Amino acid sequence: MPTFPDSSELCVCFAHIAYQMEAVYGQRKQAMRHFQTRSLEETAQRLPEAHVLAISGIWQNDLLEQAGKLQYIQSIGAGYDQFPLDELHQRGIRLANARGANRNAVSEHTFGLILGLLRKIHEARDNQRRHQWRGMISNISEREDELAGKTLGIVGMGHIGSRVASIAKAFDMRVIACKRNTASYEGPADEVVGADAVGDLLDRSDVVVLNCPLNDETRSLIDAQALARMKPTAILINVARGACVDTEALLQALEAGEIAGAGLDVFDPEVLAPENGLWDRDDVIITPHTAGETQAYEANVLDILQENIARLQRGETALLNQIV
User: Fold this and answer.
1) Structure confidence at residue 80 (pLDDT)
2) Is residue 192 assigned to a domain?
3) In this structure, are residues 105 and 293 in contact, taking their beta carbons and an 8 Å threshold?
4) For a surface tag, which of 99, 155, 199, 274 has the fewest beta carbons within 10 Å of its beta carbon?
5) Active-site residue numbers?
6) How many CB atoms within 10 Å of residue 172?
7) Is residue 47 part of a domain?
8) pTM of the model
Protein backbone atom coordinates (compact mmCIF):
# COMPACT_ATOMS: atom_id res chain seq x y z
CA MET A 1 0.00 0.00 0.00
CA PRO A 2 1.48 3.40 -0.98
CA THR A 3 2.35 5.97 1.65
CA PHE A 4 -0.48 8.37 2.38
CA PRO A 5 0.42 11.80 0.92
CA ASP A 6 1.27 14.75 3.11
CA SER A 7 -0.80 17.93 2.95
CA SER A 8 1.34 19.51 0.24
CA GLU A 9 0.55 16.64 -2.17
CA LEU A 10 -2.89 15.48 -1.03
CA CYS A 11 -5.94 16.10 -3.21
CA VAL A 12 -9.52 15.77 -1.94
CA CYS A 13 -12.60 15.38 -4.15
CA PHE A 14 -16.00 16.28 -2.68
CA ALA A 15 -18.78 14.65 -4.69
CA HIS A 16 -22.36 15.56 -3.84
CA ILE A 17 -25.27 16.98 -5.81
CA ALA A 18 -26.24 19.58 -3.19
CA TYR A 19 -24.04 19.80 -0.09
CA GLN A 20 -21.47 22.62 0.05
CA MET A 21 -18.59 20.44 1.20
CA GLU A 22 -15.86 22.31 -0.69
CA ALA A 23 -17.06 25.74 0.43
CA VAL A 24 -17.18 24.79 4.12
CA TYR A 25 -13.85 22.97 3.84
CA GLY A 26 -12.32 26.05 2.22
CA GLN A 27 -13.32 28.14 5.23
CA ARG A 28 -11.04 25.97 7.36
CA LYS A 29 -8.05 27.16 5.34
CA GLN A 30 -6.55 23.72 4.84
CA ALA A 31 -3.36 23.40 2.79
CA MET A 32 -4.70 20.40 0.88
CA ARG A 33 -5.88 20.82 -2.69
CA HIS A 34 -9.61 20.15 -3.04
CA PHE A 35 -12.44 20.44 -5.54
CA GLN A 36 -16.18 19.76 -5.79
CA THR A 37 -18.10 17.67 -8.32
CA ARG A 38 -21.88 17.61 -8.71
CA SER A 39 -22.61 14.61 -10.93
CA LEU A 40 -21.44 11.06 -11.56
CA GLU A 41 -19.99 12.08 -14.93
CA GLU A 42 -17.99 14.97 -13.50
CA THR A 43 -16.77 12.82 -10.62
CA ALA A 44 -15.60 10.08 -13.00
CA GLN A 45 -13.75 12.67 -15.07
CA ARG A 46 -11.88 14.24 -12.16
CA LEU A 47 -11.47 11.30 -9.79
CA PRO A 48 -8.02 10.34 -11.19
CA GLU A 49 -6.67 13.48 -9.47
CA ALA A 50 -7.90 12.53 -5.98
CA HIS A 51 -6.32 10.65 -3.08
CA VAL A 52 -9.44 11.20 -0.93
CA LEU A 53 -13.06 11.03 -2.06
CA ALA A 54 -15.94 12.34 0.10
CA ILE A 55 -19.10 11.08 -1.55
CA SER A 56 -22.68 10.03 -0.94
CA GLY A 57 -25.60 9.31 -3.27
CA ILE A 58 -23.81 9.51 -6.63
CA TRP A 59 -21.40 6.66 -5.88
CA GLN A 60 -21.18 3.91 -8.53
CA ASN A 61 -18.75 0.98 -8.37
CA ASP A 62 -17.49 1.84 -11.86
CA LEU A 63 -15.77 4.86 -10.34
CA LEU A 64 -13.08 2.56 -9.03
CA GLU A 65 -11.76 2.19 -12.57
CA GLN A 66 -10.91 5.91 -12.47
CA ALA A 67 -9.46 5.82 -8.95
CA GLY A 68 -5.78 5.22 -9.58
CA LYS A 69 -4.62 7.45 -6.70
CA LEU A 70 -7.55 6.89 -4.34
CA GLN A 71 -6.63 5.74 -0.81
CA TYR A 72 -9.54 6.85 1.37
CA ILE A 73 -13.31 7.23 0.89
CA GLN A 74 -15.35 9.26 3.35
CA SER A 75 -19.04 8.48 3.04
CA ILE A 76 -20.96 11.71 3.50
CA GLY A 77 -23.85 9.70 4.97
CA ALA A 78 -24.10 7.03 7.63
CA GLY A 79 -25.05 4.35 5.11
CA TYR A 80 -22.34 2.37 3.33
CA ASP A 81 -24.19 -0.56 1.76
CA GLN A 82 -23.61 0.99 -1.69
CA PHE A 83 -19.84 0.45 -1.47
CA PRO A 84 -18.13 -2.83 -2.56
CA LEU A 85 -16.34 -3.54 0.70
CA ASP A 86 -14.38 -6.58 -0.47
CA GLU A 87 -13.07 -4.78 -3.55
CA LEU A 88 -12.10 -1.73 -1.53
CA HIS A 89 -10.17 -4.00 0.83
CA GLN A 90 -8.41 -5.68 -2.09
CA ARG A 91 -7.43 -2.32 -3.56
CA GLY A 92 -6.20 -1.01 -0.19
CA ILE A 93 -8.79 1.79 -0.14
CA ARG A 94 -9.98 2.77 3.33
CA LEU A 95 -13.62 3.65 4.02
CA ALA A 96 -15.31 5.46 6.90
CA ASN A 97 -18.90 6.58 7.24
CA ALA A 98 -20.44 9.69 8.80
CA ARG A 99 -22.10 7.92 11.72
CA GLY A 100 -22.84 10.46 14.43
CA ALA A 101 -22.73 13.49 12.15
CA ASN A 102 -26.52 13.73 12.18
CA ARG A 103 -27.07 12.55 15.75
CA ASN A 104 -28.38 15.87 17.02
CA ALA A 105 -30.31 16.65 13.85
CA VAL A 106 -32.24 13.38 13.59
CA SER A 107 -33.02 13.11 17.29
CA GLU A 108 -34.34 16.68 17.32
CA HIS A 109 -36.34 16.05 14.13
CA THR A 110 -37.81 12.97 15.81
CA PHE A 111 -39.30 15.11 18.54
CA GLY A 112 -40.40 17.68 16.00
CA LEU A 113 -42.54 14.97 14.42
CA ILE A 114 -43.77 13.65 17.78
CA LEU A 115 -44.72 17.08 19.08
CA GLY A 116 -46.18 18.08 15.74
CA LEU A 117 -48.57 15.14 15.84
CA LEU A 118 -49.50 15.31 19.51
CA ARG A 119 -49.88 19.11 19.55
CA LYS A 120 -51.52 19.09 16.08
CA ILE A 121 -49.15 21.78 14.82
CA HIS A 122 -49.69 20.75 11.20
CA GLU A 123 -53.46 21.14 11.58
CA ALA A 124 -52.98 24.57 13.15
CA ARG A 125 -50.82 25.58 10.18
CA ASP A 126 -53.54 24.41 7.78
CA ASN A 127 -56.12 26.43 9.72
CA GLN A 128 -53.81 29.44 9.62
CA ARG A 129 -53.70 29.32 5.83
CA ARG A 130 -57.51 29.18 5.79
CA HIS A 131 -57.73 32.05 8.32
CA GLN A 132 -59.76 29.67 10.48
CA TRP A 133 -59.85 29.97 14.30
CA ARG A 134 -60.50 26.56 15.79
CA GLY A 135 -62.73 26.62 18.82
CA MET A 136 -62.48 24.59 22.01
CA ILE A 137 -62.97 20.83 21.71
CA SER A 138 -65.45 18.99 23.92
CA ASN A 139 -64.37 15.48 22.87
CA ILE A 140 -61.34 14.72 25.04
CA SER A 141 -59.87 12.18 22.59
CA GLU A 142 -59.74 14.81 19.82
CA ARG A 143 -57.69 17.36 21.78
CA GLU A 144 -53.94 17.93 21.73
CA ASP A 145 -52.00 15.63 24.04
CA GLU A 146 -49.01 15.69 26.41
CA LEU A 147 -45.86 13.55 26.50
CA ALA A 148 -45.33 13.33 30.25
CA GLY A 149 -46.16 9.87 31.54
CA LYS A 150 -46.30 8.28 28.12
CA THR A 151 -44.12 5.35 27.06
CA LEU A 152 -41.66 5.79 24.20
CA GLY A 153 -40.45 2.63 22.46
CA ILE A 154 -37.18 3.01 20.53
CA VAL A 155 -36.07 0.39 18.00
CA GLY A 156 -32.34 0.88 17.48
CA MET A 157 -30.10 2.30 20.21
CA GLY A 158 -27.12 3.71 18.40
CA HIS A 159 -26.00 7.35 18.56
CA ILE A 160 -29.39 8.69 17.51
CA GLY A 161 -31.57 6.31 19.53
CA SER A 162 -29.58 7.02 22.69
CA ARG A 163 -30.06 10.77 22.32
CA VAL A 164 -33.77 10.28 21.58
CA ALA A 165 -33.97 8.41 24.89
CA SER A 166 -32.24 11.26 26.72
CA ILE A 167 -34.60 13.84 25.28
CA ALA A 168 -37.60 11.66 26.13
CA LYS A 169 -36.56 11.58 29.78
CA ALA A 170 -36.55 15.38 29.79
CA PHE A 171 -40.23 15.16 28.79
CA ASP A 172 -40.85 12.79 31.73
CA MET A 173 -41.53 9.85 29.45
CA ARG A 174 -40.86 6.21 30.22
CA VAL A 175 -38.43 4.70 27.68
CA ILE A 176 -38.28 1.11 26.44
CA ALA A 177 -35.32 0.50 24.17
CA CYS A 178 -34.76 -2.39 21.78
CA LYS A 179 -31.12 -3.34 21.25
CA ARG A 180 -29.40 -6.40 19.84
CA ASN A 181 -26.91 -6.69 22.68
CA THR A 182 -28.77 -5.64 25.80
CA ALA A 183 -25.78 -6.35 28.06
CA SER A 184 -23.74 -3.57 26.42
CA TYR A 185 -26.28 -0.81 27.04
CA GLU A 186 -25.56 2.04 29.41
CA GLY A 187 -27.94 4.95 29.11
CA PRO A 188 -31.14 6.66 30.19
CA ALA A 189 -33.68 4.04 29.02
CA ASP A 190 -35.85 2.63 31.80
CA GLU A 191 -35.90 -0.80 30.19
CA VAL A 192 -33.87 -2.50 27.47
CA VAL A 193 -35.18 -5.51 25.54
CA GLY A 194 -33.67 -7.72 22.87
CA ALA A 195 -34.67 -7.93 19.23
CA ASP A 196 -36.92 -10.88 20.01
CA ALA A 197 -39.08 -8.63 22.21
CA VAL A 198 -40.00 -5.99 19.62
CA GLY A 199 -43.61 -7.18 19.75
CA ASP A 200 -43.79 -6.53 23.47
CA LEU A 201 -42.36 -3.05 22.92
CA LEU A 202 -45.07 -2.36 20.33
CA ASP A 203 -47.77 -3.56 22.71
CA ARG A 204 -46.72 -1.18 25.47
CA SER A 205 -45.59 1.99 23.69
CA ASP A 206 -47.56 5.19 23.12
CA VAL A 207 -44.93 6.38 20.65
CA VAL A 208 -42.78 4.01 18.57
CA VAL A 209 -39.60 5.44 17.03
CA LEU A 210 -37.51 3.60 14.44
CA ASN A 211 -33.80 4.45 14.56
CA CYS A 212 -32.55 1.09 13.31
CA PRO A 213 -30.36 0.32 10.28
CA LEU A 214 -31.90 -1.46 7.30
CA ASN A 215 -30.94 -5.13 7.14
CA ASP A 216 -32.62 -8.50 6.69
CA GLU A 217 -33.98 -8.35 10.23
CA THR A 218 -35.45 -4.85 10.00
CA ARG A 219 -36.80 -4.89 6.45
CA SER A 220 -40.61 -4.57 6.75
CA LEU A 221 -40.21 -4.80 10.52
CA ILE A 222 -43.36 -2.72 10.84
CA ASP A 223 -45.82 -4.76 8.78
CA ALA A 224 -49.55 -5.41 9.17
CA GLN A 225 -48.96 -7.80 12.06
CA ALA A 226 -46.72 -5.34 13.90
CA LEU A 227 -49.14 -2.46 13.38
CA ALA A 228 -51.98 -4.58 14.76
CA ARG A 229 -50.04 -4.95 18.01
CA MET A 230 -49.74 -1.20 18.53
CA LYS A 231 -52.24 0.72 20.65
CA PRO A 232 -54.99 2.49 18.66
CA THR A 233 -53.83 5.71 20.38
CA ALA A 234 -50.15 5.17 19.47
CA ILE A 235 -48.12 6.99 16.82
CA LEU A 236 -45.26 5.68 14.67
CA ILE A 237 -42.15 7.73 13.83
CA ASN A 238 -39.80 6.51 11.11
CA VAL A 239 -36.48 8.35 10.77
CA ALA A 240 -34.56 5.16 9.96
CA ARG A 241 -35.03 3.71 6.46
CA GLY A 242 -38.21 3.63 4.41
CA ALA A 243 -38.08 -0.12 3.86
CA CYS A 244 -38.32 -0.75 7.60
CA VAL A 245 -42.05 -0.03 7.22
CA ASP A 246 -44.55 -1.70 4.90
CA THR A 247 -46.06 1.48 3.46
CA GLU A 248 -49.27 -0.12 2.21
CA ALA A 249 -49.84 -1.85 5.55
CA LEU A 250 -49.29 1.47 7.34
CA LEU A 251 -51.81 3.24 5.14
CA GLN A 252 -54.37 0.51 5.76
CA ALA A 253 -53.75 0.64 9.53
CA LEU A 254 -54.28 4.40 9.56
CA GLU A 255 -57.46 4.11 7.52
CA ALA A 256 -58.77 1.41 9.89
CA GLY A 257 -57.89 3.44 12.99
CA GLU A 258 -55.47 0.76 14.23
CA ILE A 259 -52.96 3.49 15.15
CA ALA A 260 -53.46 7.22 15.72
CA GLY A 261 -50.86 8.68 13.39
CA ALA A 262 -47.41 8.61 11.83
CA GLY A 263 -44.47 10.96 11.37
CA LEU A 264 -42.43 9.86 8.36
CA ASP A 265 -39.11 11.17 7.04
CA VAL A 266 -38.19 8.15 4.90
CA PHE A 267 -40.10 6.09 2.38
CA ASP A 268 -39.86 3.03 0.18
CA PRO A 269 -39.61 3.86 -2.60
CA GLU A 270 -38.33 7.41 -2.44
CA VAL A 271 -39.53 9.82 -3.73
CA LEU A 272 -43.03 9.18 -2.30
CA ALA A 273 -45.38 9.00 -5.28
CA PRO A 274 -47.77 11.98 -5.62
CA GLU A 275 -50.76 9.63 -5.69
CA ASN A 276 -49.84 7.87 -2.43
CA GLY A 277 -52.66 8.15 0.10
CA LEU A 278 -50.31 9.18 2.92
CA TRP A 279 -50.04 12.71 1.49
CA ASP A 280 -53.65 13.63 2.21
CA ARG A 281 -54.04 12.27 5.73
CA ASP A 282 -54.47 14.64 8.67
CA ASP A 283 -52.95 12.01 10.97
CA VAL A 284 -49.64 11.94 9.07
CA ILE A 285 -46.75 14.41 8.94
CA ILE A 286 -44.38 13.93 6.00
CA THR A 287 -40.89 15.37 5.69
CA PRO A 288 -38.76 14.65 2.57
CA HIS A 289 -35.82 12.74 4.12
CA THR A 290 -34.51 15.92 5.72
CA ALA A 291 -34.12 14.78 9.33
CA GLY A 292 -30.34 14.82 9.14
CA GLU A 293 -29.95 17.82 6.86
CA THR A 294 -29.07 20.93 8.85
CA GLN A 295 -26.81 23.95 8.53
CA ALA A 296 -24.20 22.09 10.59
CA TYR A 297 -24.08 18.88 8.54
CA GLU A 298 -21.12 19.66 6.28
CA ALA A 299 -19.04 20.78 9.26
CA ASN A 300 -19.90 17.62 11.20
CA VAL A 301 -18.82 15.37 8.33
CA LEU A 302 -15.64 17.38 7.79
CA ASP A 303 -14.68 16.89 11.43
CA ILE A 304 -14.63 13.12 10.79
CA LEU A 305 -12.82 13.53 7.46
CA GLN A 306 -10.08 15.72 8.90
CA GLU A 307 -9.51 13.47 11.89
CA ASN A 308 -9.09 10.44 9.61
CA ILE A 309 -6.79 12.25 7.19
CA ALA A 310 -4.61 13.19 10.16
CA ARG A 311 -4.56 9.57 11.34
CA LEU A 312 -3.64 8.27 7.89
CA GLN A 313 -0.86 10.83 7.56
CA ARG A 314 0.52 9.67 10.92
CA GLY A 315 0.51 6.09 9.66
CA GLU A 316 -2.25 4.94 12.02
CA THR A 317 -4.46 2.04 10.96
CA ALA A 318 -7.59 2.66 13.06
CA LEU A 319 -10.01 5.22 11.64
CA LEU A 320 -12.92 7.04 13.20
CA ASN A 321 -16.13 5.29 12.01
CA GLN A 322 -13.97 2.77 10.17
CA ILE A 323 -15.72 0.39 7.76
CA VAL A 324 -12.72 -0.83 5.73
Assistant:
1) 87
2) yes
3) yes
4) 274
5) 241, 270, 289
6) 11
7) yes
8) 0.91
